[in-house]
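The record is given unchanged here:
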Amino acid sequence: MLLIFRNISFVHPFFFILLLLLPAIGAWYYFRHTERYANLRISTLDSIKDLDSWKGKFRAVLPILRALAFLMLVIALARPQRTLKEEEIKAEGIDIMMVMDLSSSMLAQDFKPDRLEVSKAVATEFVEKRSFDRLGLVVFAGEAFSQCPLTTDHGVVKLFLSELTCGLLEDGTAIGMGLATAVNRLKDSEAKSKVVILLTDGDNNAGYVQPKTAAEIAREFGVKVYTVGVGSRGRALAPVSRRSNGQYIFGLATVQIDEELLTEIAKMTGGRYFRADSAEKLEQIYGLIDQMEKTEIEVTTIRRYTEIFQNFALAALIFIFLEILLRYTIFRTIP
């Protein structure tokens, strides 16, 4: 019943006060029935106990039909309208490139199950919140690769994030290459704001583009860089070597993150450096970036109304017609 009145509003809802008459009408029918049909006292009902017909059982449907007709008329008087709500959304989106470190150290188990899986999960949640922005993905290790170009199809971005694994690229940490690749994707963007979120857990030790050079290029193209150093403090269980079959050998290793470099990159581009030493802290960092980089959205709501009182008025006429038809045909009584 609730689904019938979904997206329906009433122009004159005060007519529903008339529904209070239904109990009065019911009482009137009851007393009228008592006055019209007198009681007959007989010594026993054995002789007529099998005379109860289906007409007698179903005669009670007549007042129900009349009550339904009255209900439909009241609804029609309240003038129901079906509401069609449309929204025109004008959003000045932000172009965001996420730059993800895929070096073997991202398999360190100071985050559970490891740094990479936690980083992927948190980045996926971030993508889901940025409904009106274009997002892209760059990955780097010893070299950098544009995994997903800027797109509004966030399902594709999340798919690429879910498929990230260490070992796709030559091992190493080419921070400058990762940043330069992301800036190259953003440099021709006409978005009001262009942002890079660069996540790494190590020192720059590979690539032919220096991180500071990449930061200068980012600044030149108006790209703001948020840098995130991910990893606990002290020592962590991490890959220390690799067998011939490609399997990693784990051992305790000192967590080394060039926080000075990451801070300088962020400062040069008007961004900010964050240190995530736990999964909870990483979630907070992405949440903070989400708050700082707000998309300007203008929503215009248009409502269109369609009159549907005719449907209820027609239903009332049908119920009245059925009641009259049945009363003077099938359920007709002799005065």
